[in-house]
Amino acid sequence: MNLRPAPETAGGVAVEERAAFPVNRGALCGKGRTAPQVLAIGSRLTTPLVRGASGELEPAGWEEALDRVAAGLSATRTAHGPDAVGVFGGGGLTNEKAYALGKFTRLVLGSSQIDYNGRFCMSSAAAAGTRAFGVDRGLPFPLADIPSTGCVILVGSNPAETMPPALRYFTGLRENGGRLIVVDPRRTRTAEHADLHLAPRPGTDLALALGLLHLVVAEGRTDEEFIAARTTGWPEARAAAMAHWPELVERITGVPVPLLRECVRMFCDAPSSMVLTARGPEQQSKGTDTVGAWINLCLATGRAGRPLSGYGCLTGQGNGQGGREHGQKADQLPGYRMLADPAARAHVAGVWGVDPAVLPGPGRSAYELLDALGRDTPDGVRALLLLASNPVVSAPRAAHVEERMRALDFLAVCDVVLSESARLADVVLPVTQWAEETGTLTSLEGRVLLRRKAVDPPPGCRGDLRVLHDLAARLGWEKGFPTDPEEVFEELRRASAGGKADYSGITYRRIAEEDGVFWPCPATAEGGDRGAGPHPGTPRLFLDRFATPDGRARFSPAVHRPAAEETDAEYPLLLTTGRVLAQYQSGAQTRRVAELNAAAPGPFVELHPRLAERLGAAEGDLLSVVSRRGRAMAPARITTGIRADTVFMPFHWPGAGRANSLTNPALDPVSRMPEFKLCAVRVERAETAGDGDPADGAGRAAPRPG
Ligand SMILES: Nc1nc2c(c(=O)[nH]1)N[C@H]1C(S)=C(S)[C@@H](COP(=O)(O)OP(=O)(O)OC[C@H]3O[C@@H](n4cnc5c(=O)[nH]c(N)nc54)[C@H](O)[C@@H]3O)O[C@H]1N2
Ligand SMILES: Nc1nc2c(c(=O)[nH]1)N[C@H]1C(S)=C(S)[C@@H](COP(=O)(O)OP(=O)(O)OC[C@H]3O[C@@H](n4cnc5c(=O)[nH]c(N)nc54)[C@H](O)[C@@H]3O)O[C@H]1N2
Ligand SMILES: [Mo]
What we know:
This is Nitrite reductase. It contains 23 helices and 29 strands. By secondary structure, the chain is of the alpha/beta class. The chain has four domains: 32 residues, no CATH class; 238 residues, Rossmann fold (3-Layer(aba) Sandwich); 175 residues, Dimethylsulfoxide Reductase, domain 2 (3-Layer(aba) Sandwich), CATH 3.40.228.10; 119 residues, Barwin-like endoglucanases, CATH 2.40.40.20. The strands form eight sheets. Strands 4-3-17-16-15-5-6 form a seven-stranded mixed beta sheet, with helices on one face. The longest helix has 19 residues. The structure holds ligand MGD (2 copies) and molybdenum atom (MO).
């Protein structure tokens, strides 16, 4: 994406497609094209807001607002200890901001209580990748390799709507004679491009992957040489797969045996193949094991650690990859180091100039942190600093999360708009966003990119780095929180040196000259052992060895297990949730853009005609979807492209149509990912628009009492 000032366009920024840019070949989706409108929208925050005596948010000066935040956070710390102060970040933040936020929390606040929305995003794939390969990088190869492989299985991923610029890699694959298989309970726009579409019952991907592996073994299509030379754990994984014979898998998943066989044939006949997962199989209470089972399929067939083959995770947010590498995750330090590892603590403490003993230990995962907000218990989190996320709309069991946020002693939010979450705050700080500031992002391929400032921010806004600097200064840290992103990056390089995500050989200058640099990229001493100069970066991982201590990939021995919540007589249907093309996430930004709202004006319930007929519902009729946690209402959208036992709702809207009023916060035991992708519901025709969940007031401006 290239940004050039153009006064005739919104915010003085024009977004233009840049054909030579290697990640998207210049293509942009509707949200990218209209992104400048988000810079300029009338509802953009340009002055700090402070909750006054009247109980309303009122404009205030920066000094007053920052004083209030510093006082709010330190009062809680003094009264209840450092872990009573929490921080919640986002995968949209630049690497520099994510790094500074983790450092601020651990040093200035002294708190272990930090996590971020990426926990809701790729944490299951990250955990499974680390377990199997010893490192978590979304793709072990560049996106541009996809069209040259022989077969791709896309599991629970809908790039036609969620990554339109990447769709060309999949259409390119088919133009080159490669096969595309899509696994999704819905016949999505992506599935329409596929050679084969498998539509399993939500939550059964683990059984499906095991069933495919069973067939691979039964049909003698394993790669014994690869298994022996480059993996460990095959006997246990093989035994797990053999317990999932095809007819059993058909019964669990609803996918007919002949389609399972067809899938194995396409995958194994191709000279090289890939499995790519996204949120469908990952956002489950068994997401880590599920991804592990798909990785098993790659390992058993020798489709990993070789050119044009492997497992990858299609990452979500703007900086979904980098956002999880530099320390805003509860258990991590910069460079993808682990907070519980004494050597990692010593290294990072050295860079920060502190004693390792002052660094707190690992904290709680995102949902657990949100669930602990405002609790009047010794381990309650009573004050929160929130950046770059809107959990009132996007967290599971959102009515409960909203209630917890209202119960806080103090809430400060940094945002560009007055999101549903910002409305609950005691102080809202208006910050700058992407085109208004410089910073690095890391793509799903591990490519570190530099985004340069293109326009001046609206007067009144400050960058997140400046906010952290100003707060740190008020809390006794005059030094250590620079506001210049390049200065922060230089420190991040040193902190990451020797870590899994090693950025130490990457500089702003190199990124600009080379169109991005792939980590790991260690610094090399001038004239040192490499002699030839700087490390070239690592576009392709695992070709010689995996990143585990013994260099071998590890099979996962998991067997299928049911979802956290099964259907029953009272809740006979499954709800799954996801995205539509024209809205982004909690909608905080896109619901403010007229063109996008025209394309996707509101929530809906997608259901099969047979189910609609049973309910007596016609297209557009208002439906009420009820789960054990609440109710949401939205018009019916009837389509044969969904299983008859499943309904789908997008999660982009607050208020009565908020899908997350329904979702189940049951967590994966390893990744702590909530089960966004399925819960048991019943669907009814709603008689009036007024019978929504009274607890669900997100659509109204609802100030927190006090
Ligand atoms: N337009 C748009 N694009 C976006 C975003 C956005 O909000 N809007 N968000 C960005 C972010 S942060 C992310 S994480 C990505 C997400 O990108 P995707 O993962 O592609 O998006 P989702 O719609 O959440 O889920 C993908 C598919 O999973 C299917 N699914 C549901 N349940 C199951 C299941 O049990 N098994 C399987 N196999 N599939 C299932 C859904 O039907 C859906 O089609 O998109 C990014 N791009
Ligand atoms: N039911 C259901 N729920 C889901 C999902 C699902 O599939 N189903 N998907 C989950 C996933 S994958 C994700 S990633 C989450 C995303 O959901 P959220 O975490 O709520 O993400 P956004 O809506 O993008 O919120 C980002 C906020 O940060 C603000 N912002 C933008 N840029 C900046 C910046 O530079 N600094 C600061 N301080 N603020 C900024 C935006 O205005 C916006 O208010 O939702 C999760 N929730
Ligand atoms: Mo995401």
